[in-house]
Amino acid sequence: MRDMTTPPLFDPTLARSDILGAEFLGEGTNFALFSENATQVELCLFDETGQNEMHRLTLPLMEGGIWYGYLPDILPGQVYGYRVHGPYAPEQGHRFNHHKLLLDPYARELRGEIIWDDALHGYTIGQDDLSFDERDSAPFMPKAVVVDSQFDWDSDRALRTPWPETVIYEAHVKGMTQLHPDVPQDLRGSIKGLASDAVIDHLKRIGVTTIELLPIHAFANDRFLTEKDLSNYWGYSTLSFFAPHAPYLQTGQIKEVKEAIRRFHKAGLEVILDVVFNHTCEGNELGQTLSFRGIDNASYYLLSPDDKRHGFDTTGTGNTLNLSHPMVLRMVMDSLRYWVEAMHVDGFRFDLASTLGREGYGFERDGSFFNAIRQDPVLSGIKLIAEPWDIGDGGYQVGGYRWPFREWNDKFRDDTRAFWRRDPGLLPVMSERFSGSPVQFNHSQRPATSSVNFVAAHDGFTLWDTVSYNDKHNDANGEGGRDGHDHNLSDNMGAEGPSDDPMVETARIRRTRAMLATVILSQGVPMILAGDEMGNTQGGNNNAYCQDNSISWLDWDNARPQITTAVQALTAFREQNCLAQARFALPPDQPHPDHPITCWLHPRGDEMTQDDWSDDGLCCMGMLLKGSGPDDVLIVVNAGDDAEFALPDGNWTMQIDTASDDVACDVAASGVVPVPWQSVLAFTRPAE
User: Fold this and answer.
1) Helix axis angle, 326-341 relative to 292-300, nearest 10°?
2) What is the dihedral of CA 95, 97, 101, 107, to 10 degrees?
3) Phi/psi at 137 (nearest 5 deg)?
4) Which of 242, 567, 594, 626 could cysteine-pair with 533, CB 3.0–4.6 Å?
């Protein structure tokens, strides 16, 4: 790093407005920040600790709202931030306050963390948001760091696992590793620990192809949580869309993320990031000024059309990112391309994705963001998954997205939970779920892999808690049990919470394996919540977003191997029999050489009739699938008591029995076979 005793001088001949952020160009660094409504932008250079401001320089050039300048001899490791001047006029949507140090939206690496103090607010705490606070926020702010992007990827490239072969595992960096006995103690809770041999071996063993990480973008631990000795564990409170969350790094350097992704790729595992582009951590107009609000509130956020003093909140967090603004859209696109091209991630899951399609007339499936993704030569070819809802009007859009997006399917989750707890009359909708939910997704030339099927995710009960609790138990969150939803569709199987009764334990394991079988053997893309493959519990907490402790960390020492081995057998069966297909299956009377054929069978052995589908007491049926692989496949599900099923003619072999501890079997079968209570059986026969 250069001698900082004298202020550096800008070289206008090398300055570039086409690259945003702080870009090291070999001998110096180009700084560029977008602010359409600013009147002046100051670059603040700090010492290595980030505590002492050494120089404050006015960016000398501006065009198109991009303020920029090139500083020779500013090298990787330089710590910096911005102060932005402009009108402080909240009624007009402007909240510039040059007393507040601001984080570069394009920061690749951070130094320090947020220290909650009233000085972080643009207005004076105790007064309304029209007041103006003149305290310096720099001592309480994390700062950006100039980075060197060079890294030896050793021929690493995107894996591009085909969607029909994909099995997703949703995991938290810290929760996955903090209590893992085979992860070295000094690596637990970190990206390095996540990419350890112990974790990778486990994922490979259970048949996972893709790990989907809860947010690793830098995020804030919200003040109201830290004051209650809680934390923003999940990370859905983004501070930076480019920099990784520093506590997940041992050195603070982004190379740790690259090294982890390289290790996953060498093991044949894809990495998907859960990204939050619908809002930031700055909250509503009473929130803090950390970055976007102070850089250009009226550009970066959607404002109320009735009163620009307030944000237009469709996310329930106080603010909504304004993706209808071309430069905000560019920032999001630049972030996505950065993580693909510079960091080598394989795809993204978009939190509250309906917000990303909100334009002048509400949600637009052909909105600017979605169209930008579809035409982008980098992003259109990776894995893209939408959480297809937000809390605004018209926000629930399951099935409403275009290719190449896939979507989380909460209809699959809810119907599967209800079916296995023996709610009546659900065979018709379960036939839809096993078929990839064609009512929702078989349109607009979308593939049969459009539905991401799950029964549990980070938000809500774990799968084990779904069979262990009738009610949520969120007391640890400090909100008097008011938080978290009540629509859990759960069943405690006879005892609320842990039970020493072996019959209760057996019943829970059996139902858990049946639900996992439903996820893994259905058409679409299966997703397993980390820990569900071993019966992990959160003690009935269905909103553990603030629990960075044993409530949320996976309890490896108390794993239930009967569930883990079942997942191994199910994913192997899925792969061996090519169960998932890109094209939706057709009924027998509509044969097509490019589509598999599905026939639904009654336990008596013939096709289901309309009367059969209307039988609310019927809990057992079979799905006969032809044309997906070398063998015909018959999957029999029974959510009720012990039953019998008449197999179609042929030399059948039972290969899966979730009612047995030896789930993977190889048993010749014909005629009428017993179907145990709460079980899934899978048979194969040579194709005709």
Assistant:
1) 120
2) 40
3) -95, -5
4) 567
pTM for the full predicted model: 0.96
What pLDDT band is residue 531 in, cutting at 50, 70 and 90?
A: very high
Which residue of the set 104, 129, 282, 351 is catalytic? 351
407 is catalytic: no
Instruction: Please state whether beta strands 620-626 and 597-601 pair in parallel, antiparallel, or not at all (unpaired).
Output: antiparallel
Sort strands 210-213 and 168-171 into parallel, antiparallel or unpaired: parallel
d(CA 30, CA 639): 63
Q: How far is CA 473 from CA 14, 467, 526, 540, in A?
A: 60, 14, 28, 5
| 4-8 contacts, C-beta under 8 A, 24 or more apart | 4/45, 4/47, 4/54, 4/55, 7/55, 7/57, 8/45, 8/55, 8/57, 8/71, 8/72, 8/73, 8/74
Ranges of beta strands (E only) in 172-323 are 210-213, 270-275
Instruction: List, in sequence order, every beta strand (DSSP E) within 172-230.
Output: 210-213
Give the three-state DSSP class for 135: coil
Please identify which of the residues 23, 42, 222, 387 carries the catalytic annotation: 387
C-alpha angle with apex 593: 589 to 598, nearest 5 degrees? 45
Q: What number of residues does the chain have?
A: 688
* CB contact at 8 A, 279 and 318: yes
Separation CA 648–CA 603 (nearest Å): 10
- Say yes or no to pLDDT of 2 above 60: no
Tokens of 66: 């991009």
Q: Please write the tens of the pLDDT for every residue from 626-647.
A: 988 889 999 999 999 999 999 9
Q: Mapping DSSP to helix (H, G, I), strand (E, B) and coil, where does residue 119 land?
A: helix
Q: pLDDT class for 241, splitting at 50, 70, 90? A: very high
Phi/psi at 315 (5° precision): -115, -10
Residue 550 pLDDT > 70: yes
Confidence of residue 341 (pLDDT cuts 50, 70, 90): very high
Active site residue 459: no
